[in-house]
Amino acid sequence: MDKRILALDIGDRRIGIAVTDPFNSYAMPVDTYWRTHNFLTDVQAMARLASERGVGSIVCGLPVHADGTESEQTQKTLKFIQALQEISNLPVYTEDERFTSMQAHATLHEQGWKQKKHKKNVDSIAASYILESYLARKNREERNKNRKGEQDYDQ
């Protein structure tokens, strides 16, 4: 069985955290980490969390503009990812995070949460959507690979 996967929704003020179930079937929101404004401290905290959770890899949401082009936030996130990969010695993957925060706010609204209470949970829910997207993409890739293998075998 593969090790669990940790997902991060990295922002300037907060980092949303999610993790897979033991079978890597679905994502679960875990917590929100409030940034300290010390880059290295924040990266080390995420590496420590990955170690404590015993994960085998990390997926980070990559913020891009709606048209897919990079932004200033994209560059900040890539810098964080590079440092996290070096400190944690784990593979760190990226996943498009467009609209995940908007989805998370909608989810909280649908569940009756007051807007004032969203900050505490929105980032971890967004991280779970990032992780769900990553898992779905990996599953599609695996199915396509298996289909191609079956086609090669049939010929």
How does this structure look, described?
It is a single chain. With 155 residues, the protein is an alpha/beta fold. 52% of the residues lie in helices and 21% in strands. It has a single domain (5-154), classed as YqgF/RNase H-like domain (Nucleotidyltransferase, domain 5, 2-Layer Sandwich), CATH 3.30.420.140. It is built from 4 helices and 5 strands; from the N terminus they run βββαβαβαα. Strands 3-2-1-4-5 form a 5-stranded mixed β-sheet, sandwiched between helices. α1 packs across α2 and α3 (100-110) crosses α4 (118-154).
Question: Can you identify the CATH superfamily?
Answer: YqgF/RNase H-like domain
CATH architecture: 2-Layer Sandwich
Instruction: State the total count of DSSP E strands.
Output: 5
Residues in β-strands, percent: 15-25%
Strand order, largest beta sheet: 3-2-1-4-5
Task: Quickly name the level 1 CATH class.
Answer: Alpha Beta
End-to-end distance: 32 Å
What structural category arises from helix and sheet content? alpha/beta
- Oligomeric state: single chain
The third-level CATH topology is Nucleotidyltransferase, domain 5
Note the total helix count.
4
Q: Mean pLDDT, rounded to whole units?
A: 85
In percent, how helical is the residue content?
Answer: 40-55%
Shape, principal axes of CA atoms: globular
What is Rg?
A: 17 Å
Estimate nothing, just give the exact number of structural domains. Answer: 1
Largest sheet: 5 strands, mixed
SSE sequence, one letter per element: EEEHEHEHH
